[in-house]
Amino acid sequence: MIVSARERLILHYLMEDINKEITIKEIAELIDVSERTIHRDLKNIENILKPFQLKLLRRAGVGIKLAGDYNGLHQLKLAIQKQDYMEYTPDERLVIALCSLLDSKEPVKLLSLANDLGVTAATISNDLDKMEPFIQRYGLSLIRRRGYGIELIGTEESKRKAIRSLISDRFDVPEFLKMVRESIQKKSSNTIDSISERLLGLVKKEKLLIIEKLVGHMNQQLPYPLADSSYVGLVVHLALAIERIQRGENISIRGEYLKELQETKEFDIAREIAKYLEDEFQVVIPDQEIGYITMHLLGAKIRFTREIGVQEDNVETAFIVNQLIKQVEDLSGVQLKGDQSLIEGLLAHLQPTLYRLKQNMRISNPLLEQVKKDYEDLFRIVKTAVSRVLPDLNVPDEEIGYLVLHFGSTLNMKASLNKWKALIICSSGIGTSKMLATQIQNHIPSITETKNISVFELKEMNTEDYDLIFSTIPIDGVTLDYLLVSPILTDDELEKVQRYIQLKGGKRGAGLYKEEKSASSYSIQYDDFKGVIKESSLLISILDSLEVFCMEKHQEIEITLKEVCKKLSSIGHIGNAAKVVKALKKRQQLGGLGIPGTKIALFHARNEQVIQPAFHLIDLKSPQILKSMDNKTIHAERILLLLAPEDACAEMLRITSYISALIIKSEESIHIFETATKSQLIQYISQQYYISNVQTHKE
Asked: Residue 67 is part of a domain; what is its CATH number?
């Protein structure tokens, strides 16, 4: 198949939104050619489409669009991507030129670039003008001098970010490593185009596959799984780091920040990874590089449980989630408060997102343009809400797009019947999977129970537990009865989904729809029952030991904490009081603990010196100015002290997390924690826990 650069551009615009019609005039203006030229190119494009069961639909006065199923569209995209180009579009020339500059330690001659790309020096010079905005996003700049050449100037960190961005923009996550393997094996039926080869040349393909095995092994050891994009991102980062280290390009990191990273559990994992890489590639990996590996692990952390943990910044994240939901409610006029699915989804997504934003780590979002089109008003609302809640952070549209998916899936939610269990296989993150699941549930009310997984988790799943399996990506190497659909469903695909369900329904049989209750129809299973009982016992223990410590004089917070911890040590609740105080102070230094708009602050920590979980109140003699979670200040009159052992079991963490979440659940709960007596608070916490965790299981 031979496709010219202009034909590829036309196909790109047609494939961008398969449901939207575009006029010949619009295409001509986008490509900057005549309408006659577009008509001529479309004749050849019709022949290109035939092998993929696609065709052009034309409506006079309206425009043209592609018609066909998602699988054919996907195969066409792959075929275009894998062809060996004889000419390049302006964007493709820009990518190749940028690869050359990133890969060179010396200035590159303008004429050399022009010869490589088969264009004039003036054309390349014009391309470089267009390159400037892209590289400026990463803190890079160009030096262009006659007789000297062209040189890319910036830190090693900035250059690596630009390389990772180029790769993530070019390759679909599930396709990336597959294409690398095919390239190495030189499979004639799946050649990689020259642009992809240039990008992969920035990180040696053989290194990628060696490192992939390491990351795959490490992924099984992590307390949390890596999402597909994070998995591939870490593989690329490590391969790129080795490549640049071997060339003498070292990265730098602030000393105080490196020290903070070294105290995390992820740094220990990163050190193990570095040791393996040193042995494998015979290089010395400095602590600065290990720090950046740690940042990737921290940024990739995704939680699949309900906890708002007492470690790291989760309480602050919960506050931000509540504020964000409130702002979207105010702007949209739709009530969202109390939607547990939305809260959990935002918590899981925002934890790594906030880390990425604070460390200036960018991500790609392949669905951004589609999200902007399908959720135009909601995108504007969420972007406004984010700017109000996080005024000090520059949140790019890519991150906004993922947040929109969470809100969009909640706003689209409808009541449905409990008949089918569906497995959703996606690669673009929690929001995308959730949105696809919601679309299916909206149109197929009989599907209510869904589970979203990444393709990397598929081998660990028992797919026989699910009636239906949907995937947004082709799945190779497995015998699996699944339906391939796009992340945002078209009308044609919905019909295909319905036919698929009808077929599966015939196989499943009507016997599953008996009216009488079986044991499996009860909402709580035995393991869940044991968990609720264990959690309830732990909560009773915490509430029975809850104390209110009233300070008799005005003093520094640290002195107050020392006094309280000494008392807790004397009754056997904690071991070394000084070490617990140190952990609390260290947590305070990481970020504000005051709850904005209140007179309370939550001091919390997990430490090996904590013998049993504890929750206590400290009433101060007089208000103390403390940094709050929104980086402002509050006048704190009450300290909430929440402690948990370092090796706390899952049930214990759920209980301590439940308490921290309950504090900021509503304006009412904040007022109660701010003013209640000991007995009133015990009554409130136990009552809320019973309502949300015990009563919901009753038949």
From this structure: 1.10.10.10
Q: Work out the pLDDT band at 561, boundaries 50, 70, 90.
A: very high
* Angle of CA points 544, 548, 550, to nearest 5°: 160
271 with 366, same domain: the answer is no
Distance between CA atoms of residues 568 and 558, nearest Å: 15
Based on the fold, state whether residues 619 and 680 are members of the same structural domain.
yes
Count CA atoms within 13 Å of residue 500 on its CB side: 21
- Confidence label for 575 from pLDDT (cuts 50, 70 and 90): very high
Give the end of a domain, one of 362, 393, 411: 411
Q: Are residues 257 and 392 in the same domain?
A: no
Tell me what the pLDDT averaged over the chain comes to.
77
pLDDT digits (tens, 9 = 90+) for 335-357: 787 677 787 778 767 876 776 77
Mean predicted confidence (pLDDT) in 190-207: 67
In terms of C-beta density within 10 A (0-12 exposed, 13-18 middle, 19 or more buried), how is residue 43 classed? exposed
* Residue 502, pLDDT score: 58
pLDDT band at 578 (very low <50, low <70, confident <90, very high): very high
Same domain, residue pair 114 and 20 = no
Q: Which residues contact 684 (CB under 8 A, 6 or more apart)?
A: 669, 672, 676
pLDDT for the residue 219: 73
22 and 116 both lie in a single domain? no
Q: So what's the pLDDT on residue 302?
A: 43
Within 8 A by CB and 6+ apart from 62, the residues are 21, 23
Instruction: Please answer whether residues 427 and 434 qualify as being in contact, where contact means their C-beta atoms are separated by less than 8 angstroms.
Output: no
Report strand pairing: 633-645 vs 614-627: antiparallel
Contacting residues for 222 by C-beta, under 8 A, at least 6 apart? 269, 297
Shared domain check, 78 and 96: no
Two structure tokens written together for 41: 């190119």
Which of 369, 377, 321 minimizes the C-alpha distance to 349? 321
DSSP code string of 470-514: EESS---S-----EE--SS--HHHHHHHHHHHHHHHHHH-GGGG-
Number of domains making up the chain = 5
H helix or E strand, kind and range, residue 96? helix 90-103
Pairing outcome for strands 141-145 and 548-550: unpaired
Q: Is residue 514 part of a domain?
A: no
Strands of 110-202 (E only): list them.
141-145, 149-153
The CA distance from 18 to 6, in Å, is 19
pTM: 0.48
| Percentage, residues of the chain above pLDDT 70 | 76
> CATH number for the domain including 404?
1.10.1790.10
Instruction: Give the CB-side neighbour count of residue 409, counting CA atoms within 13 A.
Output: 27
- Whether residue 306 lies inside any domain: the answer is no
Do 106 and 209 fall within a single domain?
yes
Co-location of 498 and 403 in the same domain? no
User: In this structure, is residue 308 part of a structural domain?
Assistant: no
CB 72 within 8 A of CB 52: yes
Neighbours of 211 (CB within 10 A): 25
The range of the structural domain enclosing residue 648 comes to: 527-697
307, part of any domain: no
What distance in Å separates the CA atoms of residue 673 and residue 492, rounded to the nearest whole number? Answer: 53
For 223-269, the three-class secondary structure string (H helix, E strand, C coil) is CCCCCHHHHHHHHHHHHHHHHHHHCCCCCCCCHHHHHHHHCCHHHHH
